[in-house]
Amino acid sequence: MTVLQGQADLVSDIDRRGFAAVWVRDVPLFDPNFGDAGQIFDPFSYLSYLAARTEKVALATGSAIFSLRHPIDLAKAATTIDHLSGGRLVLGIASGDRPVEFPAYGLDMDERGERFAETVAYFRQLTAPGHSVINSRLGTISGAHFLPKPAAGPIPLIVTGSSRQSSDWIAKHADGWLTYPQQAHTPEGPKRLAQIIRAWRNQIPDNGFRPHMTNEWLDLVDDSSFPRTPLRGGFVLQTGRKGLIDLLSEWRDAGVNHAALGIQFSARPAAEIIQELAEEVLPHFPSLEGPRPLEVVW
């Protein structure tokens, strides 16, 4: 738990420095064989707390496991945070990949893809304007209403990986797509990523725009010229800021619209890395100005 001490102060600093979003993970159970405890805190409870510690930054899940939870509970938590934050919630969503969690919830892991798609449909119906009659394998609603509705239009649902769905389904039903970055230490990885993004965007109905996102675990070293070097079997990228700027430029050319950088494996203090990213890297890739958050009066 000590790893979380002071984290909210860092998030407040990120908010002040103009980063686009902060991401929290959803890992209900720690499986020592999997090797990663994730965020530890429940993502929805934690985002409610972070909503009170921030003013502008988007609050994102990366990713909420839709196949493990009932859509009513997901929608209630999501729309609550959306109101408490003034409309700043972004839901990264996934079907789950930790085998220990599914029997703990009394669910069949082999059915997670079907359950994921059903949960997305149910969630959309619940949070849409007006009153819906829902008849789903996950439950039925008739004569009852869901409240609150989202604060400022639909809450974006960003599908992570395939989530056991076809690329055509993702193109039709997702508000954006978060994928793994391919190898990040050479330009070949971003080139392969460009092909994946291009093929997906060609399937989007009416050629509409959907943002693409990717992420990388980063060990940002003091030496600004340190070359891009894979660690932990390619799971972590060790580099100096010049190598990171090169990578982000390659991702941008590939069609990536947002990069989420995890620094939990960095040797340097988190506050020091955030300062360097804000002062030396972010000016090359400024966050786009979105709608101003709604006034929070709770």
Summarize the model shown:
It comes from Devosia yakushimensis. By secondary structure, the chain is an alpha/beta fold. It has helices at residues 7-16, 43-53, 71-84, 101-104, 112-127, 167-173, 188-201, 241-254, 270-281, and strands at residues 21-24, 58-65, 89-94, 134-136, 139-141, 157-160, 176-179, 212-220, 229-231, 236-239, 258-262.
Notes on the protein architecture:
The protein is an alpha/beta fold and 298 residues long. The chain has one domain (2-284): Alpha-Beta Barrel (TIM Barrel). It has nine helices and eleven strands. The strands form two sheets. Strands 1, 2, 3, 6, 7, 8, 9, 10 and 11 form a nine-stranded mixed β-sheet that branches. Strands 4-5 form a two-stranded antiparallel ribbon. α7 (188-201) links the parallel β7 (176-179) and β8. α7 (188-201) runs parallel beside α8. The protein is globular and about 65 Å long. The model has no long low-confidence stretch (mean pLDDT 95).
Largest β sheet strand count, sense and barrel closure: 9 strands, mixed
- Averaged pLDDT: 95
Beta-strand share of residues: 15-25%
Ends: how far apart? 30 Å
- The figure for the number of domains is 1
Q: Work out the radius of gyration.
A: 19 Å
CATH topology: TIM Barrel
Number of strands: 11
Query: Which parts are unreliable, with pLDDT below 50 for 5 consecutive residues or more?
Result: none
* Run of helices and strands: HEHEHEHHEEEHEHEEEHEH
Query: Can you count the helices?
Result: 9
The SS-based structural class is alpha/beta
CATH architectural name = Alpha-Beta Barrel
Shape: globular
CATH class: Alpha Beta
Helix content: 25-40%
* CATH superfamily membership: Luciferase-like domain
